[in-house]
Predict the 3D structure of the following.
Amino acid sequence: MSIEKWQVKKFEDIKHLDENGNEYWLARELQSVLGYAQWRRFCDVIDRAMVSCKLNEQEPKYHFADVGKLVEIGSETKREVNDMRLTRFACYLIVMNGDPRKEAIAHGQMYFAVKTRQQEVQELYNRLDEDGKRLFLRSDIKQKNMLLYEVAKRAGIQTIYEYAAFTDKGYMGLYGGLKASDIAKRKCIGKNKEILDYMGSVELAANLFRITQTEDALTKNNITNKVTAGKIHYRIGREVRGAIERIGGTMPENLPTPEKSIPQLQKEQVRAIKGRKR
């Protein structure tokens, strides 16, 4: 049996049917199949998926239902642990917010694929308010940055310092020579804060394009040299900047810093969602 078929079988094995014939999955079983060792880590992914659910104009409580589950803890003793009953759409959102470097996540994205087409996603995005667009794009960037990190490793970029220098090359191209620390200082972002969490939707979109195009270029050209990888990242950042300039857009370093960070917005959304579920 191929890996793909084996993985699909695992997703089928943990699928349940209720008394009305409706399919559902349990979060703790899905956690195991997707390769998450810690429930706490998996809950972070579920939280992001619930925010995505709301952004998709769906009611989270219908797709993520809290349930209890008895587990054995030894000596014929059992205790109840938190679990969730998930719809197929909820599972889809979970794998879309998971770690794309995990092979099981990639197979999950195929298995739980829904009928939503790219055009429908774009139409949904256009209906979102500014905060919704920021959350949507930041979630996408998290996944794409993970993929860029993997490609960078294949190019010989191994340490966190080397990756920081590689990242700065992209920022320098896009921000007219400014490194991440320079951008943070210019935009009054606190020390050790992730600058992507303090960008508006227009700025995030420019950085998403920089990231995806760099990952694609490094992959297609099979780059295995870290110096070359840095040069490519800088060039693509500069080309994105050039495109902004040609259409008369505002340079990213001159765009305003939103009042609320992405983590603040996510906490507010999750708090509101979980409050309504009680």
